[in-house]
Amino acid sequence: MQHTDCALIMGANPAENHPISFRWLTKARENGGKIVSVDPRFTRTSSQADVYAPLRSGTDIAFLGGMINYTLQNNLFHKEYVAAYTNASFIVKGGYDFNDGLFSGYNAEKRAYDKTKWALETTPDGKPVKDPTLQNPRCVFQLMKKHYSRYDIDSVIAVTGTPKEDYLNVCKTFCGTGEVGKSGTIMYAMGTTQHTVGTQNVRSYVILQLLLGNIGIPGGGINAMRGESNVQGSTDFALLYDNLPGYLAAPKTLVPEHATLEGYLKIETPKTGYWSNKPKFVVSLLKAWYGKSATKDNEFGYQFLPKASGNYSHINLFKAMYDGKMDGAFLFGTNPVVGGPNAGKEKEALSKLKWLVAIDLWETETASFWQKEAGNNPSDIQTEVFLLPASASYEKEGSISNSSRWMQYRWKAINSRGEARPDLEVIHELALRLKNLYANSANPADKPFLALDWNFGSGDEVDIDLVAKEINGYDISKGKLMKTFGDLKDDGTTSSGNWIYSGFYPGEGMNLSKRRDSKDTGGENYLNWSFAWPANRRIIYNRASADPSGKPWSEKKAVIHWDALQNKWVGNDVPDFKAVTAPTAPGGTGAFMMNKDGVALLFAPTLNDGPFPEHYEPFESPVPNPFSSQQLNPAAVVIEGDFNKKGDKSQFPIVATNYRVSEHWQSGSMTRNQEWLSELVGHMFVEISEELAAEKGIKNKDQIIVSSARGEVKAYAMVTKRFKPFTIQGKKIHQIGMPWHFGYKGFVTGDTANRLTPHIGDANSFIPEYKAFLCNVRRAD
Amino acid sequence: MSNQKKPVVEVRRFSKAFVLAHAVNAISFLALYITALPMYTDFFNWLYPVLGGPAQARLLHRIFACIFVTPTIIYLIFDAKGFFYWMKELITWKKRDLQFFSEFVKDLFGLKFKHVKQTFFNAGEKVNSILQIICAILIICSGITMWFSQYFPRAVVQWGYFFHNVGFALAIAVVVGHIYLSVIHKNSRPGYSGVVTGKVPAWWAKDHYTEWYEDEVKKGNFPKIPDPKHTKHKGA
Amino acid sequence: MTEYVKYVDVTKCDGCRACMVACKNWNDLPAEQTEFLGSVQSHKKTTADTWNVLQYIEHDNAKGNLEYLFRHSSCFHCTDAACEKVCPEHAISYTKYGTVVVDQDKCVGCGYCVNNCPFEIIALKEYKDKNGKEYRKAHKCTMCTDRLDEGLQPACVTTCHTGAMEFGNKTDMLKKAEQRVNEIKSRFPNANIYNPQGVGGTHTVYVLAERPSVYGLPENPKVPTSAVLWKDYAQPIGKMMLGATTMAVVGAYISNKIFNKEGKGHDEDGGGSHE
Question: What is the fold of C4-222?
Answer without folding.
Answer: Alpha-Beta Plaits (3.30.70)
